[in-house]
Predict the 3D structure of the following.
Amino acid sequence: MATLHLFIADLAFASVIAAVLGLATVAFSLQYAVSNVLNLALGELLTMAAYFAYAGSRYGHLPVWLAGLIAILMVGVCSVGLNHFLIAPFSRRSTSAFTPMIVTFAVSAVLEHLVVAVFGPNSFTLQLGNTSTAIRLGDFALSWNELVTIAMAIVAMVLLQVVLKRTLLGKAMRAIVDNRSLARACGIRTNRVTDLAWFISGCLAGIAGLALLVSTGTGNSLLGTSFLLFIIPAAFLGGMGSMYGAMIGAVVIAFASDWSSILFGSQYKVVIGLVLLLLIFFVRPSGIVAMPSRRWEGGK
Amino acid sequence: MGRREVSFYIYTLVIFACSFGIASLGLNLQYGLTGTLNFAYVLFFALGAYIGGMVALGSQNAPIAQSLGEQFAFGLSLSLPYPLGPLAAALAGALLAAVVGLVLKRSLRDDFGALATVAIFLVAYTLAGSYTPAVNGYDGIAGIPSPFGDENTLLYVFVAVGWLALSYIIAAALSNSPYGRRMRAIREHPEAAEALGKPIFRTRMTVFILSNAMAALAGAVLVAFVSAWSPLSWQFPETLVFFSAVIVGGRGNNLGAVLGAMLIGVALQQAVLFLPAIPAAPTLIPALQWVITGVITIMFLWWRPSGLLPERKTNWRSLQPWSVRLGALRLGARSKPQ
């Protein structure tokens, strides 16, 4: 029964991780859906959000919420730049998906070490809000920070849903996901819409990075890279390129890894994701592509 | 600097060049020639280094790790003589490659498989660091004896060059053989190759196993010289060095892969050391090395995707045996004046 208590006590932490992971995984699969590129530099976008917020509040003397907002927008702009100047040109030129992927790999190494070069190798802490308990139900306790993180994730998801379903931009994005050349033939400015999609996914990654920083308290240059370890299985599990799938995958991976670390010890936290991922590969050798969910949400 | 230091510096450069050259040759076989994308490449390099080191470690120089009050002695306390270390490493690399390849199966060819290798690498890295009984966690293994004693470094330099030569001969023989043409066909147009009856998965798998065994061999060649190995030596971006070497040297060209390994793996690293060091930021220069490596890779991919030494196109004449080619030359000379 002691384990059950641990499960419940850890529920808050697991839901925070699920929220962060959900944001990052949706960003990852949105980028894949519109550009057909698996972006290995996504982890660095998370790291940069944390560092931008830190720099804004530490050196710019901004209030934390303003520094965070600016950081999110800056990461969105970086994401657009990444697509506009690197990924889109490489995708236009090469038919293989490998070259853009290697480019994102190189960008990830460059960004990770640029952060080290600018901010130094030491980890930093950001004092945020109050860590006092907001909600308590028996063993289950949720601090204000965790509550804000989860709320931020939910608001971001709802906003994304509204953009995708209710606006013309969302319609154009879904059209591009379905058939890029047909969308262009219908007069949609595919390049601009793709850039906007990357801006949205960059902002999502920025929120995820901030939320990760809030939940862990300290950040360093490997903050996002090490989180890629959870993003990849979550994206696989959800069926790449589907939004609800990405959310479900994130929740499953977050809770599975958290509970397996309680059951078997913390070093096995990372193993469960890989086990699930390899299981998918084993059951479906054709890859996830064959799954019916390979379209961006919103229906045809 | 005395003469001893200079010669030791040169030995270091040569051994690093040999090790990185072997690994780049392997990556050229799987990425440059067959078109398989494997972001876990440095994992096989690291495995080779661990196995090569642990086989060579004896009980008297095995480091002791303490974990929860227990003591583990690392190394298999074998003290095996030299060539067995690299051979065991290559075998282990081949076995791990076979397992990874069988799990990924047909996804070896696509970007999902490449993404899965990223996950495999990150999990293996985290486990190697956090699960101490396996390879002593982040402390790593140390005190690996020099294969021919500490006084005979020059002999080891020649042995390392020998390993590079052996790897080059294998890679060149493979890429010039009919099997090499099949590899290129699979890289260029898998569907066409399959329609002509070429077994795609088996070919990819064979090359995957062979080239990852070469990566493991390269790791063992390096670790016998540097005598210590820990997860800090094989972080995720490390794979980029080998990709960069293959791309800068020329995808599909074995000589290019070796040249790229020397330029990116050795020359760039040494050149960066000549930059003025800033005492306030000691990590700036190593970080800058990574930035330059990444930027060079992207620039080459955009402006010169075929690399410094482009892959040579096979023409009809080069497919003929030498006897026929010489005969054709003589025929040509006789028929021309008339």
Remarks:
- The CA atoms of residues 51 and 119 of chain A lie 8 Å apart.
